[in-house]
C-alpha cells in the first residue's frame, strides 16, 4: 500500500506562527495563507489592519506555489526577463511571496504572503517554511 506525506493543520499553524513572528519583527502587516498539496486552504490569518485585498492574493500565491511546485518568485523573474508565457498560465501569480512546502522531495503544501512589498512577502514566507526544518 502506498502512503502519502501530508501537511497537517498543526504544521500549518507552526508555519504561520513562524511567518507571523518574522512579520512582527519587521512591523509588517500581512495576510498568511497555508494550503495543502491540492491548493486547498488549511489556515489563514490576517492582521486586523491589513488591506483586505491581501487575503485573496495570499491564497492565490499559496495555490500557485502548490500547483506549479515552485516559488512564485520564479514566475516573477521569468516575466521580468521577457518570458511572458507565465502571464497566460492559469493561476500564476508573478509576484514573490508564494513558496512550496516540501517534505522528502515532495510538495505537501505551500504558503502565501501578501501585504507588503513582494521581496518582504518572500522573506516572511521563507521564515514560515524554515519552521518545519
CATH level-4 homologous superfamily: Haem-degrading domain
Show unreliable segments.
none
- Give the termini distance in whole angstroms: 28 Å
User: If classified by CATH, what would the architecture be?
Assistant: 2-Layer Sandwich
Portion of residues within helices: 40-55%
Q: What is the number of helical segments per DSSP (H or I, 4+ residues)?
A: 4
Helix/strand structural class: alpha+beta
Compute the number of strand runs: 4
Shape from CA axes?
A: globular
Q: Can you identify the CATH class?
A: Alpha Beta
Beta strand %? 15-25%
CATH topology: Beta-Lactamase
Tell me the Rg in angstroms: 14 Å
- Could you spell the SSE succession in H and E letters? HEEHHEEH
The overall pLDDT average reads 96
Spatially, the strands of the biggest sheet line up as 2-1-4-3
Query: In the residues, how many domains can be counted?
Result: 1
- Major β-sheet annotation: 4 strands, antiparallel
Give a structural overview:
The protein is of the alpha+beta class and 133 residues long. The chain has one domain: Beta-Lactamase (2-Layer Sandwich). Helix content is 41%, strand content 20%. The protein has four helices and four strands; from the N terminus they run αββααββα. Strands 2-1-4-3 form a four-stranded antiparallel sheet. It is globular, with a radius of gyration of 14 Å. The model has no long low-confidence stretch (mean pLDDT 96).
Amino acid at each position: 500500500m502506498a502512503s502519502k506525506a501530508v501537511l497537517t493543520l498543526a504544521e500549518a499553524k507552526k508555519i504561520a506562527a513562524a511567518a507571523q513572528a518574522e512579520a512582527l519583527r519587521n512591523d509588517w502587516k500581512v495576510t498568511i495563507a497555508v494550503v495543502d498539496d491540492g491548493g486547498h486552504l488549511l489556515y489563514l490569518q490576517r492582521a486586523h489592519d491589513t488591506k483586505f485585498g491581501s487575503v485573496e492574493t495570499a491564497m492565490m500565491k499559496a495555490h500557485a506555489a502548490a500547483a506549479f511546485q515552485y516559488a512564485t518568485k520564479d514566475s516573477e523573474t521569468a516575466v521580468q526577463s521577457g518570458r511572458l508565457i507565465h502571464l497566460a498560465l492559469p493561476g500564476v501569480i508573478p509576484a514573490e511571496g508564494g513558496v512550496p512546502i516540501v517534505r522528502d522531495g515532495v510538495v505537501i503544501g505551500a504558503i502565501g504572503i501578501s501585504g507588503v512589498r513582494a521581496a518582504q512577502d518572500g522573506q516572511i514566507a521563507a521564515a514560515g517554511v524554515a519552521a518545519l526544518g
